[in-house]
């Protein structure tokens, strides 16, 4: 290993349950420390689980005005205590932006994080590199102006989510709301100024190059990490013979969940679908299942703890990943690490992940007939399912275990730090 590095992470949301960025932050930081590096963390709410391995963890507060506006809880926007603090410039801007539908959280976090970093640098703090986790806010440019190498992880550019939202919009007002919500212009500009962008697949790298105009030499495809000790088979858990498992938010069109519900209606009556997703009475998957006559064959779990998610992977006959786009495809890798066969779509990075693991079948996206046929084929071949699961796990471990991802990431850090030292020496 090269000399130990001092790394500063910035993440505008840090909890593992608020998205993949929280999982990425926690595990990558832990593995870097295990490799001998030192880590500090600046993070916004919802805050991460304890990170005792970090040298420091500083919570950056946020009033989360946009969430209150979206939930139409306007009364909660004005704090009962000390309402005058809303007149501070950044809070006032956040309040106004949220009120008209913009999503100010990444930009506001980055500005607050920059103020914290600038204060620490004035006090003598030094870092070899700043690693932003999918924020790409304006404050990162300030950190770079302080002489710090800055890179960002982008699992996929926000343009992907914006295009999916446009496909879902049914009115001009909804389309305007899509433009307001996605700060694509800020993220594209900031990404172009940073020292490097890291991502998790060849598909996401191609999308970032196209949509954010990032030069190829500044873009690094490192893969995504997986806790292969946690996500593992358990011979003591019997696999169901007819249970399909899917992990995905139905509200996100890119997850393709409704195509899987349509496929369920084409499968034998004994086949059941377990969907890990937030549940509510007006859930679109439940409504579609009722209209197709398969409501009793669909179970929506609501949010589950990680241990329960692992148990579901270990129990499922097949894990289905019906996405229309994936920057990586974590459910597919988690499933194969647990020894479950997978039926996935040829969308985004999923063909790469499935080729690496070799643990299932790939079908065209947005095609319920193809999904149903592939699922039925594997359900009819229990020996093939067991073989696919057994063969995939060691390949997933070799490609995506966190120690390997952390080592690749540290190599990028070292190159950036060395380059900055050379530039500083030349200027001096």
Explain how this protein is built:
The strands form two sheets. The protein has a seven-stranded parallel beta sheet, with helices on both faces. Strands 10-9-8-11-12-13 form a six-stranded parallel beta sheet, with helices on both faces. The longest helix has 26 residues, at 402-427. It contains 18 helices and 13 strands. The mean pLDDT is 92. With 428 residues, it is of the alpha/beta class. The protein is globular. Helix 6 links the parallel strand 4 and strand 5 (150-153).
Features:
428 residues; alpha/beta; Rossmann fold; 2 domains; 6-stranded parallel sheet; 47% helix; globular
Task: List the SSEs and their pairings.
Blueprint lengths: L5 E6 L8 H15 L3 E6 L12 E4 L5 H6 L3 H4 L11 H11 L5 H18 L6 E5 L5 H7 L4 E4 L4 H11 L3 H10 L2 H10 L2 E4 L2 H11 L6 E3 L21 E5 L9 H8 L7 E5 L7 H8 L6 E3 L5 H10 L2 E4 L8 H8 L4 E4 L4 H8 L2 E4 L4 H12 L2 H19 L1 H26 L1
Parallel strand pairs: 1-2, 1-4, 2-3, 4-5, 5-6, 6-7, 8-9, 8-11, 9-10, 11-12, 12-13
């Amino acid at each position: 290993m090269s000399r130990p590095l001092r790394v500063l992470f910035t993440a505008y949301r840090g909890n593992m349950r608020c998205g993949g960025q929280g999982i990425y932050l926690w595990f990558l930081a832990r593995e870097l420390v295990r490799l001998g590096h030192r880590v500090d963390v600046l993070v916004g709410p919802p805050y991460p689980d304890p990170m005792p391995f970090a040298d420091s963890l500083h919570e950056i507060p946020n009033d989360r005005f946009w969430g209150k506006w979206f939930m139409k809880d306007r009364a909660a926007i004005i704090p009962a205590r000390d309402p005058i603090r809303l007149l501070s410039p950044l809070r006032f801007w956040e309040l106004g932006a949220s009120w008209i539908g913009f999503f100010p959280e990444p930009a506001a976090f980055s500005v607050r994080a920059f103020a914290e970093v600038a204060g620490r640098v004035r006090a003598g703090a030094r870092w070899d590199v700043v690693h932003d986790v999918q924020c790409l806010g304006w404050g990162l440019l300030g950190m770079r102006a302080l002489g710090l190498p800055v890179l960002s992880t982008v699992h996929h550019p926000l343009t992907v989510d914006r295009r999916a939202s446009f496909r879902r919009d049914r009115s001009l007002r909804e389309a305007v709301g899509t433009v307001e919500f996605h700060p694509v212009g800020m993220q594209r500009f900031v990404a172009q100024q940073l020292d490097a962008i890291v991502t998790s697949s060849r598909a996401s790298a191609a999308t970032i190059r196209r949509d954010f105009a990032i030069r190829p030499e500044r873009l690094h495809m490192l893969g995504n990490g997986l806790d292969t000790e946690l996500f593992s088979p358990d011979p003591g858990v019997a696999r169901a013979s007819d249970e399909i498992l899917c992990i995905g938010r139905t509200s996100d069109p890119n997850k393709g969940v409704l195509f899987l519900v349509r496929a369920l209606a084409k499968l034998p009556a004994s086949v059941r679908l377990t969907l890990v997703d937030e549940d509510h009475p007006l859930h679109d998957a439940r409504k579609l299942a009722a209209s197709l006559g398969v409501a009793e064959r669909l179970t929506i779990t609501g949010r589950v703890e990680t241990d329960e998610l692992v148990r579901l992977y270990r129990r499922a006959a097949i894990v289905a990943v019906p996405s229309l786009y994936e920057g990586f495809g974590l459910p597919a890798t988690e499933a194969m690490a647990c020894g479950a066969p997978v039926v996935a779509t040829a969308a985004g990075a999923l063909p790469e992940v499935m080729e690496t693991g070799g643990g299932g079948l790939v079908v065209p996206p947005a095609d319920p007939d193809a999904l149903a046929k592939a699922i039925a084929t594997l359900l009819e071949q229990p020996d093939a399912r067991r073989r696919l699961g057994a063969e995939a796990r060691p390949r997933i471990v070799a490609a995506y275990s966190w120690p390997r991802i952390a080592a690749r990431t540290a190599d990028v850090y070292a190159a950036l730090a060395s380059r900055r030292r050379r530039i500083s020496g030349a200027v001096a």
